[in-house]
Predict the structure.
Amino acid sequence: MLKTFRIGGIHPEENKFSAGKSIETIAIPSEVIVPLAQHIGAPCQAVVKRGEQVKVGTLLGKSVGFVSANIHSPVSGTVKKIDKALDASGYKRDAVFIDVVDDIWEESIDKTNSLNRDYDFTSKEIIDKIFAAGIVGMGGATFPTHVKLTPPPGTKAEVLIINGVECEPYLTADHTLMMEKTEEIFVGIQLLMKAVNVNRAVIGIENNKRDAIDKFRETAKFYPSIKIQPLKVQYPQGGEKQLIDAVLSRQVPSGALPISVGAVVQNVGTAFAVYEAVQKNKPLVERVVTVTGKDVTNHCNVLSRIGVPLRNLIEHAGGLPETTGKVVSGGPMMGKALASIDIPVTKGTSGILIIPTLEARRKQMKDCIKCGKCVNICPMGLNPTLLMTLTEYEVWDKAEKEKITDCIECGSCSYTCPSDRPLLDYIRLGKSKVMGIMRTRKD
């Protein structure tokens, strides 16, 4: 019997239209916009000035805190200006505008496709290279990777879990990367294991990716410390706590980190980025993005430089269909609707989903019928309808006691609600408010 997590979960329509589509490379435009905040934590501080010449891999923004990540130039050319630019959040934030000239890379970067299996690094050297390269979680969370690889005092990692689940409907970027960069991912995993000083790794892959499971199992024969774990198709299995439960049968306590149960979780895309950072001295300047939607002409997985306007990727996929009602960054469950398609690709852009008007329209909210569906499917064991009510009436102390901050914002509650109540919208608002109160209390 296939493993999965124990609490809640749903199985939305998969719609993996771009599965099996090879990675295509997007052309570099004449100008790119590189946001200085592409990660969880403190934004970077610009270290370049207007008129300065940069190459691919030149440092643009320097990390200013422990929870932060360096930003590098994805192109070569001239810094046009440092100004505010709209990002996926809908707000304008600091960004570096670059006029593109040629495609000249920093000399230290190895651009060859030859596989490098050099493991002659210490744990500190690996983490330092990851930090320097600005690697973040590539599954969409964008948490700086070097932070995850530096467990708090008094904790110790026992196992590395690699997230190859990609449970979000429509998205296939990770699946495609697993098929095309298998060996590089395995080398990246070995480096991550060495970084956190563990001798065991488990790669969790959902059972709807049989080709990836078979290929990874074949490759794992040469890596005895790495195990492949097929998993039942169940959303949101890509969540850290859900994946740990599915793979290790360990449940992370409320408010605790995965390291509390001896686990460190990294995405397959992150493992590949780590390989490139350590073995090729390549910073994170490009990523694979799925461009898809029910009415899209050319569903595709594209390799795009950071800073390229989403409009360019959409045009590569055949352009916006006439039926377009909404464009989402990410998938339909956890993605965010965009105010513009001229915002740039960032480190966390896993997909661009184009939703038809009929599906994009919100339905009229009705009264809660007390059916309990949202409670039964919540993977964190919360009471979504209660949390929505507490947010509505601003009862923040009660919302905190009901563990609103444990919500992973998977959207399962809103998806399953027969009364079309915007449960997640309210919970997001309440969670943000409660976290702000908690931070104030700590200060």
